[in-house]
Write a structure and sequence with these properties.
This protein has 382 residues and is α/β, with parallel strands linked by helices. It folds into two domains: 201 residues, Glycogen Phosphorylase B (Rossmann fold); 170 residues, Glycogen Phosphorylase B (Rossmann fold, 3-Layer(aba) Sandwich), CATH 3.40.50.2000. It contains 14 helices and 14 strands. The protein has an eight-stranded mixed sheet with strand order 3-4-2-1-5-6-7-8, with helices on both faces. β3 and β4 form a beta hairpin. α1 crosses α14, α7 runs parallel beside α8 and α7 crosses α12.
Length: 382
C-alpha cells in the first residue's frame, strides 16, 4: 500500500517521522511530503541511503520529499519577508503535490495551513485521511467554519482523544463513522539519541528541585499561570525552556515575585538537547488554558517524568490512567498546591514516573499506533 503523509509546512516533524517509521514497520510503502525544517535536525530512519531524484531522500524505512516552500524554508532573511515568500510559494506547492499524489493509494494529511484555500486544492486521490492536530477553535469562528468545510472533504478524520472526537462530532459535523480515535505516540526516539548534549554548565550546578515548562511559549499554554503559582514555592527552580511566540517581558516581570529562581531559556531547543532537560526535571508542568493533546506531554511520557497538567481537552484522559496529576485550569492556587505536594513527595513522583513509562510503552507506543492506522487505511481502501 502506497501512503503519502502530507505536512506542507513541517508543523510537527517529530510526529510525522515517528508515524512514517511505524507505518513502514507495519508494511506500508510510505513517503513523507513536507518542507525543509529550518530550526534544527529532525529524526530520520536509522540507515539513510543515497539520495534519489533531486530533493527526494530515500531511507531504509520511508522516503522524504521536500516539495513545499523550497525557498522560504531555507531563507535566512527578514522574518516578514520570509513569511511573504512562503505565502507566494503555497499555491505552487499544493498544485505540485496534486500531480505527485497520483502515485499514492492513500493520502494522509497531517496539516493544511490555509483551510479556506486548501480544501479546493486537495489532490483527486481517495481515500483521504486528516489527523486533527489543531487546537480546536470555536465552530462558529471564521477558522472554525473553514475547518468544518475542510473536514467534510475527508473520508476519515483521526483524533487523539475521546474528548476531541466528541467535539468534532458535536460541533464540526464529522459523523461518527468517519471518526477514528488513535492516540498520539510517546516520542521515545528522543531517549536513545547517539549524540545527546549536556545541560549548559550553569544549569548543571543547580542542586534544588526543578519544575520544567517546555516547548514554544504561547499565551494559551498558561506560562503566566505557572509563574504565579511558583510565587508560592520556595527552595526550587522553574525553567521556562523554548522559543517565544509571545512577548516575554510580562513573564519576566511576574518572575521577579517568585522566591525561587525562574530561568528563561528562550530559544529553540534541538532534539539532542532535550534529554538533558527532561531527565533533570523533577516535575514537568503543562498548565494549558486550551489544548487537545501536546507533543511536550508525549515527550515527558517517553522519559518517564512526573507530569502536572491542567484538566483541559484530552489531558484528563492521561491523568485518568494514573500517568499524570491534573488540576483545574486557570487556577494558580490549585497549581501551587499540587506543585508543593509533588515536590515534597518523592514516592508520589516515582509512582507518576513509573505510570508514565507504562503508558508510553503500551497505549502510546508507535508500533500500536502504526497497526491501528494501517487498519484504518485497509478498511477505507476496501
Amino acid at each position: 500500500m502506497r501512503v503519502q503523509i502530507v505536512d506542507p509546512a513541517a508543523y510537527t516533524p517529530p510526529y510525522d517521522h515517528a508515524l512514517c517509521a511505524a507505518l513502514a514497520r507495519a508494511g506500508a510503502d510510505v513517503e513523507l511530503i513536507t518542507c525543509h525544517f529550518p530550526y534544527g535536525p529532525v529524526p530520520q530512519s536509522r540507515k539513510p541511503l543515497a539520495a534519489l531524484l533531486g530533493q527526494m531522500e530515500r531511507s531504509e524505512d520511508y522516503r522524504v520529499t521536500e516539495m513545499f516552500y523550497r525557498a522560504s524554508s531555507v531563507s535566512k532573511g527578514n522574518p516578514m519577508l520570509r513569511r511573504a515568500l512562503r505565502a507566494a510559494e503555497h499555491l505552487p506547492g499544493m498544485l505540485r503535490h496534486r500531480r505527485h499524489a497520483r502515485e499514492a493509494d492513500v493520502l494522509h494529511y497531517q496539516w493544511l495551513p490555509i483551510p479556506r484555500l486548501d480544501r479546493h486544492l486537495l489532490a483527486p486521490v481517495r481515500p483521504r485521511v486528516f489527523t486533527m492536530h489543531w487546537r480546536l477553535p470555536q465552530a462558529d469562528s471564521p477558522i472554525g467554519r473553514a475547518l468544518t468545510k475542510l473536514l467534510a472533504r475527508m473520508d476519515a478524520v483521526i483524533v487523539h482523544t475521546d474528548h476531541g472526537a466528541g467535539r468534532l462530532e458535536r460541533d464540526f459535523g464529522v459523523t461518527a463513522e468517519r471518526l477514528w480515535v488513535i492516540p498520539h505516540g510517546a516520542f521515545d526516539y528522543l531517549t536513545a539519541q547517539a549524540q545527546e548534549q549536556p545541560l549548559p554548565e550553569e544549569l548543571q550546578q543547580v542542586d534544588r528541585p526543578v519544575v520544567l515548562a517546555f516547548g514554544l511559549v504561547r499565551p494559551y499554554k498558561g506560562t503566566d499561570l505557572l509563574i504565579r503559582a511558583f510565587a508560592e514555592i520556595e527552595d526550587a527552580e522553574l525553567w521556562v525552556v523554548g522559543m517565544p511566540r509571545m512577548p516575554m517581558e510580562p513573564l519576566r516581570s511576574l518572575a521577579e515575585n517568585a522566591p525561587g529562581r525562574v530561568r528563561f531559556i528562550d530559544r529553540f531547543v534541538t532534539d539532542p538537547e532535550i534529554p538533558a532537560y527532561m531527565r533533570r526535571a523533577d516535575v514537568v508542568a503543562l498548565p494549558y488554558r486550551n489544548i487537545e493533546q501536546s507533543g511536550v506531554l508525549y515527550t515527558a511520557l517517553a522519559f518517564g517524568r512526573p507530569l502536572l497538567l491542567s484538566d483541559v481537552g484530552g489531558f484528563g484522559e492521561i491523568a485518568a490512567q494514573g500517568a499524570a496529576r491534573a488540576v483545574p485550569s486557570e487556577n494558580p492556587a490549585a497549581l501551587a498546591a499540587a506543585l508543593r505536594e509533588l515536590l515534597g513527595d518523592d514516592a508520589e513522583r516515582e509512582r507518576l514516573a513509573a505510570s508514565a513509562l507504562v503508558a508510553a510503552r503500551g497505549r502510546y507506543s508507535w508500533d500500536k499506533i502504526g497497526r491501528e492506522t494501517m487498519a484504518l487505511y485497509e478498511r477505507l481502501t476496501r
